[in-house]
Amino acid sequence: MTQNSKLSPKGFDTSNSSEDNDDDLYEHYAFTASKGQEPLRVDKFLMNFIENATRNKIQKAAKEGNIYVNDAVVKQNYKVKAGDEVKVLFEHPPYEMLLTPEDIPLNIVHEDDDVLVVNKPAGMVVHPGHGNYSGTLINALVFHFDNLPNNSSNRPGLVHRIDKDTSGLLVVAKTEHAMTHLSKQFFNKTSSREYIALVWGNVEDDQGTIEGHIGRHPKNRLQNTVFLEDDADEKGKPAVTHYKVIERLGYVTLLSCKLETGRTHQIRVHLKHIGHTLFNDERYGGDKILKGTHFSKYKQFVDNCFKMLPRQALHAKTLGFEHPVSGEWLSFDSDIPKDISDCVDKWRNYATHAMD
């Protein structure tokens, strides 16, 4: 969790103070240790949570007095315990909050006075974050549009997001009313979203529903995972994905996925959970041969597919929602990107000839 809040060293909000205070700090990270957290050095704890962090940087922050546990400065060897509130504070705002307008072209599918629908290309990050401070969708939005409303995370116009290497449709709010109305639709599950996914393996059932709480992986904090145990409520949030087979292509399957909820990496995590990892999903292990033969020709074929589609095979194809002012139901569809369609064609050809 990252906030653009201004904090004193003791953790008190001073944003409304009438006097400037050189000691004011900005919260860059804040985590609460789970109930099952075993005692762990704070530098190792933060390494598990912060993407792209190095231990040297974390230890440097500790030496400079920037790491707080329960609003008190701690050293790098402090042992984090269950329930501890761990924060990293610096004298400068988080870089992702310093939004620089950038003249980046947008593929606008629909625009009116209240909403904007954009078809995001693969490779574009939706909002600035650690390691990605420019070239994002929001950098483009604040260049092309004035006075976009902030969401609860202070991100202009953003109602929902999709991953960097996922392509497809996003709705953007242009007014405060639209932001509130659209956010409620996503929260109440009344919006509609369909994704196209190419996955490893032959999905046997023509259609199905995947349910399971999604939360941080206990060992790899850059991944999420499914929890089904009795304490799943404590470890994750409920998630439901509906899928339907579009086409079986031998060692891979083309699916349509519809989201009932919108958790981080939901489709990627749910499909991996049922044994069908997204094709070329590096983070979740789909960039390796998971199904097929050991022949060198097959390995070369798959390598060529990876080169043709150098990202996870996931596209947000359709989007539907109620217009926040007119009440009209709006539906949008987008073409499957060429990298995915070319890869599917290659697998279709392989399935037709090599698997006879």
Explain the overall architecture:
The chain is an alpha+beta fold and 356 residues long. Helix content is 22%, strand content 27%. It has eight helices and 18 strands. Helix 1 crosses helix 2.
- The DSSP helix count reads 8
Instruction: Please state the CA-atom Rg, rounded to the nearest Å.
Output: 22 Å
Broad structural category: alpha+beta
The sequence of SSEs as H and E is EEEHHEEEEEEHEHEEEEHEEHHEEH
What keywords describe this structure?
alpha+beta; five-stranded antiparallel β-sheet; 18 strands
Chart the SSEs and their pairings.
Layout: E1 6-7, E2 25-32, E3 40-41, H1 42-49, H2 55-63, E4 67-69, E5 72-73, E6 79-80, E7 85-90, E8 108-111, E9 115-120, H3 137-144, E10 167-173, H4 176-187, E11 192-200, E12 207-211, E13 213-216, E14 224-227, H5 232-235, E15 240-248, E16 252-259, H6 266-273, H7 296-308, E17 314-322, E18 329-333, H8 338-353
Parallel strand pairs: 10-17
Antiparallel strand pairs: 1-2, 2-7, 3-6, 4-5, 4-7, 8-9, 9-10, 11-16, 11-17, 12-15, 13-14, 15-16, 17-18
Summarize the structure.
With 356 residues, the protein is of the alpha+beta class. It has helices at 42-49, 55-63, 137-144, 176-187, 232-235, 266-273, 296-308, 338-353, and strands spanning 6-7, 25-32, 40-41, 67-69, 72-73, 79-80, 85-90, 108-111, 115-120, 167-173, 192-200, 207-211, 213-216, 224-227, 240-248, 252-259, 314-322, 329-333.
